[in-house]
Amino acid sequence: MMRNLNIVLMLTSAIALAGVYGLKFSIEDTANQRSALVAKIKSQEGDLSLLKADWAALNQPGHIEPIVRRHEEALGIGPVQQKQFGSFADLPMRPAAPDSKALNALFESLDAGVDPIDAILEGLQ
Amino acid sequence: MAAISENYAPTIALDGSRKTRGNLTQARIRWMILAILLGFVVVGGRLIQLGMVVTDSTIEGQARDVITATRPPILDRNGLEMAVDIRVPSLYAEPRRIIDVDEAVRKLVTVLPELDPEWLRKRLSGDQGFVWVERELSPALEERVMRLGIPGIDFITESKRFYPGLREASHVLGSVNVDNQGISGIEKHIDNEDVALLQDIGLARGNDLAPVTLSMDMRVQHVMYDELQDALVRYKAIASAGVMMDIYTGEVVGLVSLPDFDPNDPKSALVKGSFNRITAGIYELGSTFKTITMAAALDSGKVKLTDQFDARYGIRFGRYTIDDFHGKHRILSVPEIFKYSSNIGTIRVMQALGKENFRAFLTKLGFDKRVPFELPEMRTPTIAKEFSDVGAATASFGHGLSISPLHMAVAVSALTNGGNYIAPTLYKRTRAEAEQSYVRVVQPQTSDWIRYLLRLNALEGSGRQMDKEADGYRVGGKTGTAEKVVNGRYSNSKDFNVFASAFPMDNPRYAMVILVDEPEAENAQSGVTAGWNAGMVTGRIVQRVAPMLGIAPDFSPALDVATTPSFLRSSGSGE
C-alpha cells in the first residue's frame, strides 16, 4: 500500500518537476522573444522618427523653393503674377446659340422647294 | 550514525534498542528542523537585504525617464511639422564595470577622435555607476562603438529636438537644451504651460503627446524670411524684421527677425544681435505713429477728416523748432497731413485732441505694458507717464517713446479691424473665440477712416513704391523713417525704417509691420526713406503671400473709391 503510494507520489513529483522546468524554459523563451520584439520596436520607432524628420525637412517651403528655382527655366514656371488671376466675371458671355428652330424651318422649306430668298428677291423686282 | 551507535554500544543498555533508536530519530529530526530553519533565516535575511538596496537608477542626478522624455511635435497651422523629436543614441559608461581604462580610452578615441584622451581617462576611472561620454550621436557611430566591444560602455536612446525648418522660424520656436527642456521661444512657453507638469507626474514618456498647433503659416514665414534676408543684402542693412498677424483673430502667421540663430544649435543664439526684434526690441517707430495720433484725434470727434491745419511754419518749443521733412509749408487738410507725413500738421492734430487724451489713448492701445504674448522674450515699452508739451508733440510723430514692433502690429490690427483690440497669439484661434476678448478702442467709423488714410498713403503718399510692388492687392500702409540715436544724438545718416500696413484695404485681413535697420539706397535712383526699403519689402511680401492666403488681386478703382468716405469722394482726396 505505502509502497504503491510512494511510487505514485514519486512519479507525480517527477512529472511535476519536468512540467515546471518545461514551463520555466518556455516562459524564458517567450520573455526573450518579447524583449527582442521590444528592442526591434524601439529601433524601428527610432528609424521612424528619423524618417518623419526627413519628411518634414523635405516638405519645408525653405527646402522646396531652391529646387523650384533651379528648375524654373527648364519647366517654364515662375512666381504667380497679379495679371494671371481671373474671375468668372471677367469671362466673356457665351456667344448666342444658333437659332436651330429657324434653321430647321429653313431647311424644311428648301427641301419642300420653297426658297424664302426668292420671295424677297421677287419682292425687290 | 554508526559512530553514534558505537558510542552507545559499550554503555549498559538500560533502554530497549527500539527506544534508543526512537530517541536517536527524534534528535535527528530536531537537528534537521534547526538546519532547515537556519536555511530559511539565511534566505529571508538575504531577501530583506536585497529589498533594502536602493539601486541608483538616476543618470547624473536625473531620472532615466527624464532623459528619454519626449516633447510634443509643433505644427504650423496647415499641419506642417516645425519641430519634431528624433531618437538618437547617447554613449555612456559605467566606470565600475570597466576593466581596463587605458584600453577603453584607446579604442574609443579611434571612433570618436574629438574626445580628449586625458579627459576621457579621468571620466572612465573611478567607481561611479553612470557617466555620460558623448551625447546625441548618430546611429552609424553607435554601430562602430558597439563593434569595439568595450565592457562597461553602452548606449541609451535619447530624444533630441529637431527643427526641420532650420533657421526660418527660429525666434518663434526658440530652442531646447540638451536635456530637452525649452530655454526660449514657444518651446519655453510650452514647458511652462504643461509639458513640465506632465513629465513631473510621469506622463509624457512615450511618443503619444498631442501635437501643438501654432497659428504660424510656414509658407508665409518662408516668404517673409526670404524677402527680409534679401533686404539685408539689397539695402546693406544691419538688421531686418517683420511680423504679420490676422487682424480679426490676433493670430500671428509670420514672425521673422534677422540676424537670427539656428535652433538646432542653441549655442548660436548667444551671438550678439540675434535677439527677437519684434518682441524684445523697442524702437522709436517714427511716422508710423501718426496713424495712431490720427486715430485718437478722429475717434474723439475733436478733429474731422475735413478739417484743415496750418503747416506753414515750424513749431517752436523753447530752443527747438520742429519742422517737416519734405515740408509743403501751406495749410493742409487732415488726409494731406497723413499723406505728406507732416510733423507740424500731426502736432496740430494732437494739440486739437489734447495731450492728456492722446496719452490716454496710448494706454488704451496697451503701449504702457508688454504685449500679452506667448513668447518669453518681451520688453516693456519706454513711454513717459505724463507728456510734457514737447514730449506730446514729438510722441505724436513717433519720437521720444519706444515700443516694440509687435505693439505697432497689434495697434494697426485694432485700428483696421473695426476698432477692437485683440491680443496677439501664437496658437490657433477662431474668430468667434477671439471676439470674446475684444476690447473696443475706437469706433467702427474711425476704423473706416484709418483704412482710407492708409490706402490713400499707399496710392498717393510715401507708400507708392510699395503699392507698385503689390499692385492689385490693395495694401494700405504708413512709412516711418526714424533717425537713429548715435552717441545721444539723432544721426543724419543712420535711419531706422518701418512700414506698418494692412491688406487688402477694402476688407482688411492681415496687418504687417516690417522694419529695416540702417538701410542704404539700393541704387542711385532710389532713396533711403522707409518707402524705398521697408515699404518695398512689404510690397514684395504681399505680392507673394496674398495668393497663398486666398486674396486675389483686383485692379478695379471702384474698390479704392469705396474705401474713401462719401463726403470726400466728389472733391477727390487732396490735390
TrEMBL record, chain B:
Any Pfam family: Transpeptidase
**Record InterPro entries:** Beta-lactam/transpept, Beta-lactam/transpept-like, PBP_dimer, PBP_dimer_sf, PCN-bd_Tpept
Enumerate the transmembrane spans. Answer: 29-48
Which UniProt keywords are given for this protein, alphabetically ordered? Carboxypeptidase, Hydrolase, Membrane, Protease, Transmembrane, Transmembrane helix
- Where in this chain does the record put each Penicillin-binding protein transpeptidase domain? 242-527
| KW Cell wall biogenesis/degradation (keyword) present | no
Q: Where in the cell is it found?
A: Membrane
Domain Penicillin-binding protein dimerisation residue range list:
67-180
Protein's name according to its UniProt entry: Penicillin-binding protein 2
Organism this protein belongs to? Devosia algicola
